[in-house]
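PROTOCOL LOG
Step 1. Enter all chains and additional molecules of the complex.
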Amino acid sequence: MHEALAKACFEKEAETLKDADAALRRGLILHSREYPVIDVTVQHSKPLRLRMRCDDWDDLPPSIELLNADGTPWKSGLPGGVFHGGPHKNTGLPFICMRGSREYHTHEGHLQDKWDKYRGQDGMGLVGILVQLGNAWRKAVK
Amino acid sequence: MNAVVAEPVESPEHRVAHFVAVAVITPVGTYPDEDDYRRFEDTEIIANVLAKAAKKLKLTNTSDWVARACGREINPGHSFREDHLSGIVEIEWHKHEGGGGARSVSQSLL
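Step 2. Run joint prediction.
Step 3. Record the structure below.
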């Protein structure tokens, strides 16, 4: 996708997280939302920071890094399921195993579950994916 | 002394209207808007309010979305009153998470 178009799509969707209050209403602490990255922390007693790299949005789903709240790489255990301990063959890191994550759609177990099936669906935008992950984290980590 | 005071029973025709102030927060925007709440009688069915939000926010396929309020999943088929929601109600409404696995595991694994 042309970068200018990807950036325009990104800006339109990231506008939902226009300020800290808008993010907090969705259970997220906003660190930055400057193309091509959205960087947030899931509000929780055990916070999880998610850094989404959204180059080529929405031809490609975002690549999502799992981090500690201070921005250092996540090193402790993960609950499994959506939050996979990895390593992912492309990144060598823990990864998000949920439709809407680049690492999910490029994982050998999910190559048949194409991103095109979800692209453009209501709730599968950048903020929609983050909200789902926040909810999944709160369910998995009591 | 422990006194038990019976609450007066309200017959439907004498029931005083109770209201809730509602905001529906979705990934694409908030109903009625980012800064306001809309008032509904607490007998209003939650799904009707979600339908208004979907219309305003131009959402066309929300069949697998989940609604949560007060830290729990709520039943859109209920009224606010039936779901024990009162006062200011912020409904988080979004697509259900899913994918490689969605099993819940306790924090003890972390």
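Step 4. Note key features.
Chain A has a mean pLDDT of 95.
The beta strands of chain A are 28-34, 37-42, 48-53, 63-67, 83-84, 95-96.
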